[in-house]
Amino acid sequence: MSDIVESKQNYDKTAASLQNLIQKILEAGEITQDDDNELVDLLTEYDKLYNTITSSIQEQKNKTIRQEIDELKNNKIGATVDDLLNILTENGRKTFIYKDDDNNILIDMKAIPSLVMLVNKFKMIASDGEDESSIVLTPNFIELLSNSDILLKAKNINLEGLVTANGYFKILEDGSIEAVNGKFTDLEVDGLNVSRNLTADSITVRQLNCANLPGSIASDMNVTVDPSATDATNIFANNAKFTSLQNCINNIPKNLNGYTVNITVNSITYENITIKGFNGGTLYILFKANNFGYVFGHNCSSEILLQGTGTTSQTLVSNYKTTGNVNMREGGDTSYNIVQTVPTGATLLLTNFNSNGWGYTTYNGKSGWMSTNTSYMVKEEVYETSGNSTAIQPSELLTQDGKNYAAVFCNCPYVALFDLEVYGKTGNTANYAVGGIRGSYVDLEGIKICGSENGVAAERGGRVFESNTTGKVNGIAQNANCSGTIYIQDGTTINGTISKDNSSQIIYSSSGAVQDTTSDVGTNNNTTTATSTITITSTGADTYRSTTYYNYKQDNTSRQGNYGWGNCNGLWVFGNKFTQLKGKTITKLSVTVNRIQGGIYGNVTATLKMHNYEAIPSGMPSYIDGWNTSITTPINTTKTIEITDAAVLNAISAGTCKGFGVQGPYDSSHYAVFDGNCTITATIQG
After folding, report:
1. Rounded-to-integer distance, Cα 317 and Cα 350, Å
2. Which of 177-191, 259-273, 348-362, 638-652 has the lowest average pLDDT?
């Protein structure tokens, strides 16, 4: 018995070593030659110990059976065969058991057909077990079950040991469940822990706590944007640096989780900015220089704060110019004495106009009244600008709900613009500088409207609040429509008319809100075409191994090289997402990939190539000739490649490039594994 115990202990140790080795291979995703050799040795030792244990156990059983037979011999029943037959046949009344002429005991099976049927069935169902209480299912019975419809009803069913259905559904020995695929019409769980990907068409939750998951942040973050920066990583992290404001916004997790992301824009940008889909927390953008593009925010529950470094102030230095000699008098009509005659070409600032069109002014050190009714007085306003400012100054406006805007926000509960100049466009009655539409609330504080036909609009339940706004427009300063509301704080407001429909309101004090009289309309002279960005992500990845398996690995990775298991040809696919870029003028492409564990840990150079597949092809993939670039990175590193090559940009715009892949030399030094996530950000002109 001690030999069996020792063999069992060695057997358990070998089984544990074998399990650890298999776990190591699964985590690495590869099996090396050393792994293969160790696996063979462990399996050999495992089989040897198993055979030793089973042989010892069988020998022990045989010894026990012999002892039990000897005990039966020593304790046999003291009765003859005839005595037993009389008992079984009730003294001969039942004839299915009898003796023949040679004293052999016989059973007449025809006399008891139910017993025959039971015996036949039992032979098909079970064979003898180790004792009277055990039943061992035979192959015949298992085959019978597999071809039968079975309805199982029981008050209580106990399953002990491993239960499996084709390997896809398992009840393990400890009672836990493993399943590969499952479909549930209505599932209620007390706790759900997902270690890999969770995909759903729609998820409704009462509370979302996911600070440590992708798509969330766990603290306040600070990043900077500088288009000329040579040390920019363009990867979102605290104190990271980006060369594009839009690319920065695209890389920020959408769930701000109650925290603030501070973006400081240090130099001039030429981008059309879209802020979309942020939840919770605050997105704060500090412009230290102008952005020559529009700003569009929509579908954000987060606060959006846009801060400038202050607006300019304007001073009206003259509003009339003489084209001939004009008299200056002591009073406001021709009955007063002449103070002096002002010559041709003088620029004058007239104030305090009376009802006769006379204004008070000073020229060459003398003050008096001059008439604006003469043809020699021409109105010509001249302003002096002072102070520093940052501006949102797009070359083209963004159209929303029939109006054109420089900055417009849709379905955003709270947006604030501070200390910025916002340039619209003149010449079109649909042009506005700022809009709050479709339920948005837009807070304007210290904002100056420049070069715009109209000022601000609140529509479709949108609201706009103005505090200390300045500027002058050709047409409507405030326009509220379709249940829109505009609130005007006492103090300076935009110079222009006010307009609203019957479903809307504009709330202000006619005595407290005073229109700006020091600014002119001005013009938006920006002709630079701004850019915007479109970001798309891969729907999956795969690798075709062309020399060993002649099939895809099917593990959502993109691989290149050869680590002993075939020549790898990897690719990421994007479905039809590249159609968003078709026909666009693309100026730059940023491709971000993640190298994961597999192969050597140090730097490996992979070769990025184009392909034209929307989904994984059936056979070995081919790549588009004429372009490739290198990706050099160690394990567990995210890498972004900036592409400006016309061959790539034109192929995407033409619709011939629909994705990217990796394919390099087929050797272990070029073996690299990338996960299935590939993100592409295209910079679009116009």
Report:
1. 10
2. 177-191
The Cα–Cα gap between 592 and 571 comes to: 14
Q: Is 524 exposed, middle or buried (0-12, 13-18, 19+ CB in 10 A)?
A: buried
Token pair 């230095």 in the structure block, residue:
317
Q: Is 415 left (phi over 0), alpha (psi -120 to 50) or beta?
A: beta
Structure tokens at 552: 């895809």
**Distance between start and end Cα atoms, the chain:** 86
Please count the other Cβ atoms lying within 10 Å of the Cβ belonging to residue 621. 23
Q: Give the closest residue to 301 by CA, choosing from 254, 252, 236.
A: 254
Rg (the chain; Cα; Å): 44
Q: Compute the distance between CA of residue 233 and CA of residue 633 in angstroms, rounded to an integer.
A: 14
Give the confidence band of 115 by pLDDT, cuts at 50, 70, 90: very low
H or E element in which residue 371 lies: strand 366-371
List residues bridging with 221 in a β-sheet.
261
> Which residues are 391's β-sheet partners?
421
Q: What is the mean pLDDT of residues 220-237?
A: 90
User: If you write DSSP's letter for every residue of 99-114 in order, what string do you get?
Assistant: E-TT--EEE-GGG-HH
**Complete DSSP assignment for 375-431:** TTEEEEEEEEEES---EE--SSPEEETTEEESEEEES-S-EEEES-EEE--SS-TTB
What are the b/e assignments for 276-291, b being 16+ CB within 10 Å? eebbbbbbbbbbbbbb
Indicate the residue type of 544.
Answer: Y
Partnered with residue 340 across adjacent β-strands are 328
pTM, two decimal places: 0.55
Q: pLDDT, tens digit, for every residue of 509-562?
A: 999 999 999 899 999 999 888 888 888 999 999 999 999 899 999 999 999 999
DSSP letter for each residue of 171-236: E-TTS-EEES----SS---S----SS----S----S----TTSTTB-SS-EEEEE-TT-SS---S-
Record the tokens describing residue 122, joined without a space.
Answer: 């039992």
User: What are the phi and psi torsion angles at 264 (to 5°)?
Assistant: -105, 120
* Amino acid in position 406: A
Instruction: Please give the share of the chain, as a percent, with pLDDT higher than 70.
Output: 76
Dihedrals φ, ψ of 670, to 5°?
Answer: -110, 15
Supply the DSSP symbol for 279: B
Cα 17 → chain centroid:
40
> Which residue type, as a one-letter code, is found at position 299?
N
Quote the CA–CA distance of 421 and 455 in Å, as a whole number. Answer: 12
Residue 598: CB atoms within 10 Å: 20
Is the model's pLDDT at 375 over the cut of 70?
Answer: yes
